[in-house]
Write a structure and sequence with these properties.
single chain, mainly alpha, 0% strand
Length: 149
């Protein structure tokens, strides 16, 4: 078996360009992590607001107009949360594309390491998590709406 380090073809970039690409790679990686954190914060805040809505409706009792307002607010909140989750997912997708373009400029060893995980596998994981996040918001909205009614 051939040694991958011995077969490594270094990058043809000058040091300054290589440094710039490394900074861009790090920035994109940080942006992806930040985006994921904001997605989960959005879900957590949304679920917390659903709980607050249920609490408000229970305090208000059978006051119809307030309960209707809380129901409409829950629906709008769920739609806004799903929209934000989706937008942050698209931001992650754009950053991943940027990282892939940057990695094409690096050494062959670096490319081999990054290609060791299947692109399809990563996409399945990413979009399964996206569906889970959306279902979490929808189920939280459904539970709060059923509780309010």
């Amino acid at each position: 078996m051939a040694d991958p380090i011995a077969e490594n073809e270094p990058s043809s970039l000058d040091e300054l360009t290589h440094s710039e690409l490394l900074v861009m790679h790090q920035t994109s990686s940080s942006a992806i992590l930040f985006s994921k954190m904001v997605q989960w914060l959005c879900i957590g805040m949304c679920l917390a607001l659903f709980c607050v809505a249920v609490f408000i409706s229970k305090i208000a009792g059978t006051h119809g107009s307030l309960n209707n307002l809380v129901l409409v607010t829950n629906i709008l909140l769920a739609c806004a949360a799903i929209f934000l989750i989706f937008m942050y997912q698209m931001w992650q997708f754009n950053e991943i594309r940027r990282i892939r373009k940057i990695e094409k400029c690096f050494s062959t060893l670096c490319r081999k390491i990054h290609q060791s995980e299947s692109h399809g596998e990563r996409s399945i994981e990413r979009y399964t998590l996206l569906v889970f996040m959306i279902l979490l918001v929808l189920s939280g909205a459904a539970v709060s709406i059923m509780t309010i009614r």
